[in-house]
Write a structure and sequence with these properties.
Layout lengths: L2 E3 L8 E3 L7 H5 L2 H20 L12 H12 L3 H19 L3 H30 L9 H12 L15 H22 L6 H21 L6 H9 L2 H7 L5 H14 L18 H10 L2 H4 L13 H19 L3 H17 L1
Antiparallel strand pairs: 1-2
Helix pairs in contact: 2-3, 2-4, 2-14, 3-11, 4-7, 4-9, 5-6, 5-7, 11-12, 14-15
Length: 344
């Protein structure tokens, strides 16, 4: 069996000897990622609560109410931070899988065993209750809606979405396929003349750029990918990693100012390119949060992240403990677990 290690080019997508797999599961577990996820979950939750209709509407004449409303609206971009995590984690996953096929199989098993029964349940309930996209549809239209949603085509194509949050899964799936194609080109260069190989890579790059431009919220996969491929880029920012919460706040407000919120093809990047200041600030401010993906950097995330990091570290130690068969090793792992939960 083979693993993947960083190559001299820094891409880290070339096949390597399997002896490097020993302890790779523990090495690839980054407690900071759990803290980052905790912050993202809290942000998205607060955004949905604010938009649930339960809180009173903001008075547009009140500066503080308007500012509070904009703050909660910007928290909806916590999904973008999840995309940063995916960008980082998927590069690690590609390194640790022996083949592109194994990587894609793992991705399928992570998404579709949950999504398929959920989608079929939505179709059943929607049909019986004439709910959402299933209202007033004939048999052929019903099959089209179900099939397109099972394949996660909306909002990538102008098709009705059965679940309002399924767009993030669609983005993730396209990112998996795009990353897998890029990794395949790096691992197994085409047996063709150099100009043809360059042409294929150029087509892949143009297709990726077009996807990013058409669906700007997918831009946030890139910071995680860059941090994973080129760790040296994060070293200078790591010196000011404690600025990450402030940087995150600037990022959220600036990204909100661009007006890029719809997930479908409704506001492509070239429609907001004139707002270069807000877009530039978004990109600049987005430098610090990805640094916190790397385990060796301790970031001053808000307090909700600390329990998530501790729980993640403790859960990982419990996993190692349950896999151990030696009593002394078990006691050692328990000690590590207590230390992890008490110090992180």
């Amino acid at each position: 069996m083979t693993a993947v290690q960083p190559s001299a080019s820094g891409l880290g997508l070339q096949a390597a000897d399997s002896s490097t797999l020993a302890g790779s599961a523990a090495a690839s577990f980054v407690p900071n990622i759990n803290g980052f996820r905790g912050v993202c979950v809290l942000m998205v939750f607060l955004h949905h609560v604010a938009n649930s209709g339960l809180p009173p509407k903001a008075d547009t004449a009140s500066v503080w109410q308007t500012g509070l409303y904009q703050t909660f609206m910007s928290l909806g971009y916590g999904v973008e931070l999840f995309f940063m995590i995916s960008g980082y984690v998927i590069v690690l996953s590609l390194r640790h899988h022996a083949s592109i096929g194994a990587f894609l199989k793992d991705r399928v098993l992570r998404i579709f065993p949950v999504w398929v029964p959920l989608m079929l349940a939505l179709a059943l309930v929607g049909t019986l209750g004439s709910w959402r996209v299933f209202a007033h549809t004939d048999s052929l239209q019903w099959l089209g809606v179900v099939a397109s949603n099972l394949l996660l085509l909306p909002p990538l194509l102008p098709l009705p979405a059965a679940h309002p949050a399924s767009w993030s899964l669609s983005y993730e799936w396209v990112f998996y396929l795009t990353a897998a194609a890029g990794a395949a080109l790096c691992r197994r260069p085409l047996q063709a003349p150099k100009p043809q190989r360059a042409g294929v890579l150029l087509l892949w790059g143009l297709a990726t750029a077009l996807l990013l431009a058409c669906f700007p919220r997918s831009l946030f996969f890139l910071p995680g990918v860059l941090v994973a491929l080129q760790p040296a880029l994060a070293q200078r920012l790591a010196r000011s990693a404690r600025l990450a919460p402030l940087s995150l706040a600037v990022l959220l407000y600036a990204w909100y100012a661009t007006g890029i919120f719809p997930a479908d093809y409704g506001r492509p990047l070239w429609h907001v390119i004139a707002d270069g200041h807000a877009l530039g600030v978004s990109i600049a401010a987005g430098r610090h949060p990805p640094v916190c993906l790397r385990g060796q950097h301790r970031c001053a995330w808000p307090r909700p992240a600390a329990p998530a990091r501790a729980a993640g570290a403790g859960y990982r130690q419990l996993q190692l403990l349950s896999a151990s068969s030696d009593g002394d090793v078990r006691r050692e792992k328990v000690g590590h677990c207590i230390d992890a939960c008490g110090t992180r």
